[in-house]
Amino acid sequence: MLEDIAEDGAYLEDGTSVEEGANVEYGASVEDGASAEDGAYVGDWAYVEYGVFVEYGVFVEYGASVEDGASVEDGASVGDGASVEDGASVEDGASAEDGASVGDWAYVEYGAYVEDGVFVEDGASVGDRASVEDGASVEDGVFVEDGASVEDGAYVGDGASVEDGASVQDGASVEYGPSVEYWASVGDRASVEDGASVKVEPL
Predict the structure, then answer these.
(1) Residue 107 in contact with residue 125, Cβ under 8 Å?
(2) DSSP secondary structure code for residue 78 in this structure
């Protein structure tokens, strides 16, 4: 029964699917064709738009927004006020924390962690178990690969690549098109400019 799973003041439009065991809280909105599956949680004033699938065990928290065609998979978490935009994907066990923004067609992979206030821009990819920390910015088309880390306040520009296990540290800037290669590190407040490459040289 919908009365058992949608609280007073929640809004469920025509064609919405909210399955047994899902929880849609006060003031939340689930639009036409969206789906909140078994065990999903859509918090107070959260907004789930047309065609979105919110899967088993997902938490979409207070005031979060999941936009048209976005996908938030099993066990993923979208924190207070976070935004997952058109066509973006947050995979199993990934976390987009309070106030994070995941842009159109961006991809946050298995177990990845996007912290408070981070911007993952349109079409960017954050790989398995990668970490993008407080206030960092990952621009359009960037690849942050498996296990890589972009630390507090760091900036990775359009089309740049941070490869497996690499680290871009606090306040560092990696500009348009460079590559920070496997297990390389860019130190605090360092700047790597257009087209440059940072790599670990063999001994």
Answers:
(1) yes
(2) E
- CA-wise closest residue to 140 among 121, 163, 114, 117: 121
Alpha carbon 167 to its chain's center: 19
For residue 172, how many other CB atoms are within 10 A of its CB? Answer: 24
Q: Amino acid identity, residue 51?
A: G
Q: Are 32 and 16 in contact (CB under 8 A)?
A: yes
Helix (H) or strand (E) holding 2: helix 2-5
Q: What is the pLDDT of residues 65-113, one digit of tens each?
A: 999 889 898 889 999 999 999 999 999 899 999 989 999 999 999 999 9
pLDDT (0 to 100) of residue 120: 92
CA distance 4 to 190: 54
Structure tokens that stand for 128 in this block: 């398995």
The model's pTM is 0.85
The three-state secondary structure class of 4 is: helix
Cβ-based neighbours of 4, under 8 Å, separated by 6 or more = none
